[in-house]
Amino acid sequence: MHEMSIAENLVELIADEARKERFRRVKRVRVQLGVLGHVEPEALLFCFDVVAKGTVGEGADLDVETVPGAGWCGACSRSVAISQRYDLCPACGSHLEMTAGDELRLTELEVE
Questions:
Q1: Which residue segment(s) compose the domain that 75 sits in?
Q2: Cα–Cα distance between 66 and 38 in angstroms, integer?
Q3: What is the pLDDT of residue 83?
Q4: CA 1 to CA 3: how far, in whole Å?
Q5: Nearest alpha-carbon partner for 110 in 36, 12, 17, 46
Q6: Which of 24, 33, 75, 76 is most buried when burial is the number of CB atoms within 10 A of its CB?
Q7: Taken in order 30, 60, 51, 4, is the CA torsion positive or negative?
Q8: What's the alpha-carbon Rg for the chain, to the nearest Å?
Q9: 105: part of which helix (H) or strand (E)?
Q10: What are the φ/ψ torsions at residue 11 (nearest 5 degrees)?
């Protein structure tokens, strides 16, 4: 389950920010999670709760914003929605460059 290592990295980022910004508690953590990134949001929520115990993130709400997949077709110069990696352009059948959908980004911390 790679969600556990992702949660551990997230808690480390939060701890680093707590040291730099001198806050004591995190109330809410917001992340963007691409639908094509192979991370299960429910598993990440569970792992975050487990890993955050005893840290400044203990008890924080983890809000996950899901980012849809998108790709760029260089052949016909259009951006299209994609539902899986390596989708082809629906207009011309060319290979797409994935532009969104595999991100995992910490976007906001609500702290005390």
A1: 2-111
A2: 12
A3: 93
A4: 5
A5: 17
A6: 33
A7: negative
A8: 17
A9: strand 104-111
A10: -65, -35
pLDDT tens per residue across span 53-93: 999 999 999 999 999 999 999 999 999 999 998 999 999 99
Tokens of 61: 């709400």
Task: List the CATH number of the domain containing 75.
Answer: 3.30.2320.80
Q: In terms of residues, how long is the chain?
A: 112
Band of pLDDT at residue 1, cut at 50, 70 and 90: low
Measured CA to CA, the distance from residue 101 to residue 99 in angstroms comes to 7
In whole angstroms, what separates CA 6 from the centre of its chain?
9
Give the count of domains, the chain: 1
Dihedrals φ, ψ of 61, to 5°?
-80, 135
For residues 99 and 23, what is the distance between their CA atoms, to the nearest angstrom? 35
